[in-house]
Amino acid sequence: MATYLLLHAFPFDGSMWNEVAEELRADGHRVIAPDLRGFGHAPLGDDAPDLQRMVEDVVSLLDEPAVIVGCSMGGYVALGIAGDRPDLVQALALVDTKATADGGVARDNRERIAVLAETGGDWSAGMIDGLLGQTTRQASPDVVTRVAGVLAAAPRNTVAWAQRAMAARSEALGVLRELDTRVLVVVGDEDTMSPMPEQDVIVEACMDARLVVIPDCGHLTPIEAPDAVGAALLGLVAAR
After folding, report:
1. Which of 50, 93, 139, 234 is an S-S bond match for 184, by CB 3.0 to 4.6 Å?
2. Is the dihedral of CA 166, 168, 169, 173 positive or negative?
3. Is the pLDDT of residue 240 over 70?
4. Where are the domains of the chain?
């Protein structure tokens, strides 16, 4: 039995992993799927925007090494844990995420979103098209409705905080080069937010990495194809 730590994407909470967690638990594994700072039931606090605060929050939940799994923003946190506490990383799964830092255009866009969130603007306009693949948007209206509801309910102060924290993150390729454990890289083949070239960079930096491309999915594979993501995560432990 392994412990899986599942870290969610922006602007979701731990419940985005419910379907995947069910599959992992059915195979006998322990699952921890926390709400990251400011999301779900987790308080935001008064700290300045910094993903390191999320890393520290999550590390405090671990009492043993775990399979650290992060989707999108959660992937940035997972990489932070791998850098700070590699002893807690039994294996690492990076799902629809990046190990590179934001460039100037991306940082400017995050600040634009943060300001819109703070000032009552429509900060999430057009975001569903980036989060979900074209196939999902056309064939799964229930998933579109679910994601739209999450965007509408996201606390505006948390949106601003998280966007600025992500904009300030550092490149994590050095962490991957030093990490002596198996890495699983999962991406939807329609993901335009963390496209394939970003995944190739991750794989090339790792000592031991496996790439799984999930068809007909965008940036939220744990929601768009939970069975496929769960199977890939189970395979990561079996491979060990």
Report:
1. 93
2. positive
3. no
4. 3-100+171-239
Ramachandran assignment for 28, one of left (phi > 0), alpha (psi -120 to 50 degrees), beta (any other): left
Q: Which residue type occupies 40?
A: G
Cis peptide before 11 (omega within 30 of 0): yes
Query: At 14, which amino acid appears?
Result: G
Q: Quickly count: other Cβ atoms within 10 Å of residue 15's Cβ.
A: 14
Where residue 174 falls (left for φ over 0; alpha for ψ -120 to 50; beta otherwise) is alpha
Residue showing tokens 């700072």: 37
The rounded distance, in Å, linking the Cα atoms of 191 and 196 is 8
Cα–Cα distance measured from residue 181 to residue 209, given in angstroms and rounded to the nearest whole number:
9
Residue 177, exposed/middle/buried by CB under 10 A (0-12, 13-18, 19+)? exposed
Strand partners, 89: 66
- The residues with which 92 forms a beta bridge, in sequence order, are 68, 183
Taking the alpha carbons of 72, 74, 77, 82 in that order, is the dihedral positive or negative? negative
The alpha carbon of 134 is separated from its chain's Cα centroid by a whole number of angstroms, namely: 20
Q: What is the rounded average pLDDT of the residues 22-50? A: 98
- CATH number belonging to the domain at 3-100+171-239, selected among 1.20.58.90, 3.40.50.300, 3.40.50.1820, 3.30.1490.100: 3.40.50.1820
Q: Is the dihedral of CA 207, 213, 219, 223 positive or negative?
A: negative
Q: Six-digit token pair at 227?
A: 């069975």
pTM above 0.85, yes or no: yes
